[in-house]
Specification:
- The chain is α+β, with helices and mostly antiparallel strands.
- It has a domain of 119 residues: Glutathione S-transferase Yfyf (Class Pi), Chain A, domain 2 (Up-down Bundle).
- It is 54% helix and 7% strand.
- The protein is built from nine helices and four strands.
- α1 packs across α6.
- The longest helix is centred in the middle third of the chain and has 30 residues.
Length: 235
């Protein structure tokens, strides 16, 4: 199967969780919008009025299927590339974890855009600072503490036990992103989630992921994506 991934070409964003799964699996895929005419092709697919047009990227074309929403794409890929349990209960559990990660990703985005994405960060600096304080006071401990506890309880080095799933790859991205966006705050917090940090380190050493991180396919973090580094928010 040759996959076609459609996502914005200049940011990691929500598409990165899909890229990490495809890369770890060694899957054959094209990051369509990064090629000539790719963004136009992506927009055309979203503007279609027949079939099952996606609402927004990321979406994945797999044969005749067009699959939208990050967690939904990962549910599909996980079953086909050994990145999820085979039993239905296990598949649903990992999907549930991914949906929880999706909730956290939204909260991360809202630290710098608490009043909405239609306004620039410069138009909402004061609310962003207030939102960020609450985020680090209560939301980060709640979310990362939850996943830390799961790694400990399941005793296998990954969030569901001995075998890696796509949820682990997504948690790697969460740690990397928080390190970029909030280097000071994250450095201070990491001692509270040592198992999660160890999970991140194990994933970084996986051969396919290590090669991907060193390649041009890995788009650098920047101030257009979900994880943005604003010094005023990292104090």
């Amino acid at each position: 199967m040759h996959y076609q991934l459609y996502y914005w070409p200049m940011i990691q964003g929500r598409g990165e969780y899909v890229r990490l799964a495809l890369e770890d699996a060694g899957a054959d895929y094209t990051d369509v919008a990064r090629g000539k005419g790719g963004t136009g092709a992506m927009m055309k697919m979203m503007d279609a009025h027949k079939g099952t047009p996606p609402f927004a990227p990321p979406f994945l074309k797999a044969g005749q299927l067009v699959i939208g929403q990050t967690a939904n794409i990962l549910l599909y890929l996980g079953a086909r590339h050994g990145l999820a349990p085979k039993a239905e209960a296990g598949k649903l559990w990992v999907h549930q974890l991914q949906l929880t990660i999706a909730d956290f990703v939204l909260e991360i985005h809202d630290t710098h855009h608490p009043l909405g994405p239609s306004l620039y960060y410069e138009d909402q600096k004061a609310p962003a600072k207030k939102r960020t304080e609450e985020f680090w006071k209560s939301r980060v401990p709640k979310y990362l503490g939850y996943f830390e506890d799961l790694v400990q309880a399941n005793g296998g080095g990954f969030v569901t036990g001995r075998r890696l799933t796509y949820a682990d790859l997504s948690l790697f991205q969460i740690v990397e992103g928080l390190r970029y966006a909030f280097p000071k705050r994250m450095a201070a917090f990491e001692k509270k989630v040592p198992r999660l940090i160890a999970l991140r380190d194990r994933i970084a050493e996986r051969p396919n992921i290590k090669a991907y991180l060193a390649s041009a396919r890995r788009i650098p973090f920047n101030e257009e994506g979900i994880f943005r580094c604003y010094k005023a928010l990292d104090i």
